Amino acid sequence: QLQPVESGGGLVEPGGSLRLSCAVRGFAHDLYVVAWFRQAPGKEREGVASMSSGGGSTYYADSVKGRFSIFRNFAKNTWDLQMNRLMPEDAAIYYCAAGDPGYGERWRRADLYDYWGQGTQVTVSE
Predict the structure, then answer these.
(1) Phi and psi of 27, rounded to 5°?
(2) What is d(CA 46, CA 52) in angstroms, rounded to the nearest whole number?
């Protein structure tokens, strides 16, 4: 049983930066992918970025490419999401997910992840 735990959300002005962290607690024998999703009010949950647990392949939503970066923080043993040049449309609850969604574009499918964190709020406003 795995338990992702997110931290690092908050309020930031447009153009600012935030870093989210995800600690995945529990036995990780079958952990293959850690991903960040987000959900804004009235919208579906969407995949933001993912990384294989070994720190290899990374994937990003088109809307965040060049601004967000997912990486393994070995010092903290977390999977971090560095978010730069934030825009109001980035505001959402951000969730960390862990599991084995399969290859390629399957990382975007929230239904393929077994383990979810409780979410952390990101607000982008003046």
Answers:
(1) -75, 130
(2) 18
In tens, the pLDDT along 79-110 reads 999 999 999 999 999 999 999 998 889 999 99
| Phi-psi domain of 27 (left: phi exceeds 0; alpha: psi -120 through 50; beta: other) | beta
b/e burial code for range 91-116 (CB count within 10 A of at least 16 → b) = bbbbbbbbbebeeeeebbebeebebb
E strands, the chain, in order:
2-7, 10-12, 18-26, 33-39, 46-52, 58-60, 68-73, 78-83, 92-99, 113-116, 120-124
